[in-house]
Each structure stands twice: as C-alpha cells, then as structure tokens.
Amino acid sequence: MKRAPLLVPIFFLGFLCLTAAFGAETPQAKTAATVEVRLSEYAVEMPPTLPSGPTAFLVRNEGRKSHSFKIEGPGIDGMLEAILRPHGTGRLEVTLQPGEYKVYCPIGSHAAKGMTRPLVVEPKRD
Q1: Which has the closest alpha carbon to 60: 39, 43, 81, 83?
Q2: Which residues contact 101 (CB under 8 A, 6 or more apart)?
Q3: Residues 6+ apart with CB under 8 A from 35
Q4: pTM here?
Q5: At the top level of CATH, which class does the domain 33-122 belong to?
Q6: Domain limits of the chain?
Q7: How confident is the model over 28-39, as pLDDT tens digits?
C-alpha cells in the first residue's frame, strides 16, 4: 500500500485552498470614479476639476450631430472607441494623474468651433 505519495499532493492542494479562502489577503480592485459628460453643438459639459485615480467617463451625445470624446494629458491619450450618434452614449476608462488635460471632440472642426475644454486633475485626498 503506497498511498502516502498520493496523499501529499492532495493535502498540499487542500491547504492552498483553505489559505486562499480564509487567510490570504487580496488587493482590492480600485473602483473607477464616474464622471458624466454631455456633448452638444459645440460644447463639452463636465466638471472642470477632478481627483486623480481610476476614472470612468460616461459620455452622452445630446446634440443633433455625431460627436466623440478625447482626453490628452499626463500619460493619457484616450478616445471613445466609436463615434456617438445623436442621443448615443459611450464609456471611456482611464487612470488620471495630477496635472492639466485637454478634453475635446476630435471630429472635423468641432474643437475649433468651441468643443474643447481644459481639465485640471488634483492629487486625490485620503
């Protein structure tokens, strides 16, 4: 009866499962702060200042033309994957670092017509 070699891996696997279930600490996922953005001809409405950290921009096109959303700043050059048709919505997730950003509609001459705004990101306060 040579069952001892078989019992060692089973015991070790059971120990790992119990450790994971009861004793192991896992880092908590950082939840993204949600920021609502409204686009229209030719404006971008959103808060002028935000805290740093994971951020989800919920973008709604309230205009009559197609629009999009782009953000450029420290370490970020992010844009919605799809153009938003009138009354469409989109989501863009980024991790904001402290600093100054430019937010605008990258379609045609929309930014030149005023569809742009600065964004200031401040260090997150605990």
Answers
A1: 39
A2: 71, 72, 73, 74, 76, 118, 119, 120, 121
A3: 46, 47, 50, 55, 56, 57, 58
A4: 0.74
A5: mainly beta
A6: 33-122
A7: 456 889 999 999
